[in-house]
Amino acid sequence: MHFKFPNKHSAVLISLLSLGVVSQAATNEPIQPIKAPTDINAGQAELGKKLYFDPRLSKSGYISCNSCHNLSMGGTDNITSSIGDQWQQGPINAPTVLNASLNLAQFWDGRAEDLKAQAGGPIANPKEMASNHTLAIEVLKSIPQYVVEFKQVFNSDQITIDQVTTAIAEFEKTLVTPGSRFDQWLEGDKTALNDTELAGYELFKSSGCTACHNGPAVGGSMYQKVGLIKPYQTNNPALGRFDVTGNEADKNVFKVPTLRNIELTYPYFHDGAIKTLSEAVNTMGEIQLGKTFNATENAQIVAFLKTLTGEQPQITLPILPPSNDNTPQPQPFN
Amino acid sequence: MHFKFPNKHSAVLISLLSLGVVSQAATNEPIQPIKAPTDINAGQAELGKKLYFDPRLSKSGYISCNSCHNLSMGGTDNITSSIGDQWQQGPINAPTVLNASLNLAQFWDGRAEDLKAQAGGPIANPKEMASNHTLAIEVLKSIPQYVVEFKQVFNSDQITIDQVTTAIAEFEKTLVTPGSRFDQWLEGDKTALNDTELAGYELFKSSGCTACHNGPAVGGSMYQKVGLIKPYQTNNPALGRFDVTGNEADKNVFKVPTLRNIELTYPYFHDGAIKTLSEAVNTMGEIQLGKTFNATENAQIVAFLKTLTGEQPQITLPILPPSNDNTPQPQPFN
Ligand code: HEC
Ligand code: HEC
Ligand code: HEC
Ligand code: HEC
Ligand SMILES: [Ca+2]
Ligand SMILES: [Ca+2]
């Protein structure tokens, strides 16, 4: 190691890097195949899907979870920072919801423990959906078909925000993407990758990328400093874990993002400033590992990363139950 | 007839009203069942579905056809007037795309001849998607999977706006909603409607509603003055056909909207000012026919109208092909 690790997260990194690759039970590879979700409560997930697509959870009646985490586009909005209520610019790039259930915690800074804890946030965030939980529940309660479905699913006469976030989280658990070419290769089909892609994978491991991007999600399992070797230049004021813990050592420490479906989740980095995968790979090499890749190596790693695109969830668009005469009106322009 | 018809559209109305009901070949009813679409070019429709859901046809990368004509919500946005680029307020209520193929022409004022002529409009409308056709084509051309799919579908090396609108229109032709309870009744299942609904239908016919709302779409087949008997009070400046023809007689003459799926396409009227179906029915009675319905009659007609909700198109969310490194960047905030 020819560089100094500046903080405690790097201590984890040292031990990981010193293993060479992170070997895991199932295979000798640092990346494991994604498994299809099990133990899904089908009723909750189906209701959760409706809620995920329902813009009536927003003040304007226009913005749903799917507006920013578009399941036609890798579970993201593919813009630098999201568009929220009144076209407000969001503070940070929207991460994908695909495989988010595999993350150790939610948000770039990990401030939400799990999907359920996360799901209440955007509804009431004035820069996102700009509603509030009381209003959102009032809307749902006014819609007869929702009342019936909540009752069926939760066996209760009340509709609560706890049920809403439970259902959305259950739906999100279904949003995993098994079956990528890389997973086919991991599972024994040695023809699934071509030579360039395999060379890219070897480089990804030998360069040390797998120290941080590993496990089934190829990320999502730890926090790490962005700019370990060289500071990352950004105008984005987010300071990552520091914003949660207040510890100096947590400055610029972010959740390592999943690289699953990375071909679909451009632009890259928490500030969304990196437009191409090629640039993301070079930047990572430079700021995290002090490595410069030549054009061939870069292309190989990019080719490998594109094999991480899995089968996208097949979603039948939900048909939302209509509002009732007494449903609170959406307020798009006031 | 105890009222004077002020213009030539009313001449059509006179002859229709004097027939009592508009009898048609298939049944003796003024409304015919909706037929499942035939003669769909599957390749074009599948491509058109992608384009319909693709926000990259907008300047911001955020707005697609489905943003304003949400197929989870009856093909509308369920807000008074739509939200366009930069959260601009649209000029008029967004009509449903469901069964729009049955309309004699497109838009409230009929200014687009058909679905294909319509589809180019919103992409380049600065208040809607705010892109332009050159840029939209440049975006599509930069995306390898689109290039392949256009070539397969249109057997041409070029991507043109003509192909884009052809494909979108073909997809829209699939968006019909057969199978409503009313259609089941029309097709002979006399148990499909209850007594209240049947009473509502009888009133709908005997009051003269079917003079304008008839045919398979229960509308969409003619232009009529809004406010035949009594002016319709609105702050909306749209003047309907007059804006197209410049003829005085066309002031406040609008395409008669379809009443298919009317339960889903609130709010009502071209200005979106009418929030409930009950209010829409009373207003129509008053301003078009000089009739006042009592509460029972109103409830019966509303109950009938709700039987016009058909099977909603089952849409599998398209997975959009990712942008390429050279795809023009979306411009949400500048
Ligand atoms: C206006 C845009 C917007 C809307 C609407 C929105 N999100 Fe997000 N979402 C974001 C952004 C931006 C972040 C990252 C915020 C951060 O990390 O501080 C995020 C983060 C997340 C995460 C964490 C993913 C990860 O890897 O950390 C999940 C899960 C998520 N959103 C789900 C949802 C759900 C469920 C809804 C609807 C209830 C929703 N989002 C609505 C923009 C949005
Ligand atoms: C020390 C930990 C660490 C190492 C080593 C590392 N990464 Fe990362 N990686 C991160 C973190 C943290 C981020 C989030 C950066 C940000 O958003 O600002 C990230 C982001 C990325 C992204 C963008 C993900 C997204 O969705 O925006 C890519 C691609 C990536 N890394 C690839 C690599 C490659 C290739 C290597 C090896 C050359 C590598 N990483 C090495 C921690 C690491
Ligand atoms: C920003 C909102 C918005 C977007 C985006 C939008 N529309 Fe519309 N659409 C409207 C409004 C508002 C009208 C009514 C305009 C008028 O009649 O003058 C309309 C009218 C229509 C009509 C006519 C229906 C009828 O009964 O007359 C069709 C069909 C249609 N749109 C299809 C599309 C397609 C296809 C796209 C994408 C290429 C699209 N729309 C994008 C708001 C939108
Ligand atoms: C003379 C023609 C005519 C007659 C008769 C008529 N309508 Fe209409 N109807 C229209 C027109 C034109 C509109 C569009 C009004 C507007 O948008 O401003 C309309 C709109 C509606 C709407 C709202 C549709 C929407 O999507 O916004 C409903 C509901 C409706 N009519 C029901 C009825 C009923 C019930 C009757 C009989 C009591 C009736 N109409 C009689 C022409 C007519
Ligand atoms: Ca991203
Ligand atoms: Ca409407």
UniProtKB/TrEMBL annotation, chains A, B:
UniProt main location, coarse: periplasm
Binding-site list for heme c 1: C65, C68, H69
Pfam families: CCP_MauG (PF03150)
Annotated cofactor note: Binds 2 heme groups.
Binding site for heme c 2: C209, C212, H213, M284
Positions of the UniProt region annotated as Disordered: 315-334
Single GO molecular function: metal ion binding
PTM field: Binds 2 heme groups per subunit.
Keywords annotated in UniProt: Electron transport, Heme, Iron, Metal-binding, Oxidoreductase, Periplasm, Peroxidase, Signal, Transport
Entry-linked InterPro entries: Cyt_c-like_dom, Cyt_c-like_dom_sf, Cytochrome_c_Peroxidase/MauG, Di-haem_cyt_c_peroxidsae, MauG/Cytc_peroxidase
Location relative to the cell: Periplasm
SUPFAM superfamilies linked: Cytochrome c
The Cytochrome c domain, residue ranges: 43-151, 195-309
Signal peptide residues on this chain, from the entry's feature table: 1-25
Keyword Signal: yes
PANTHER family documented for this protein: CYTOCHROME C PEROXIDASE-RELATED (PTHR30600:SF7)
This protein's name: Cytochrome c peroxidase
Native organism: Gynuella sunshinyii YC6258
Lineage: Bacteria, Pseudomonadati, Pseudomonadota, Gammaproteobacteria, Oceanospirillales
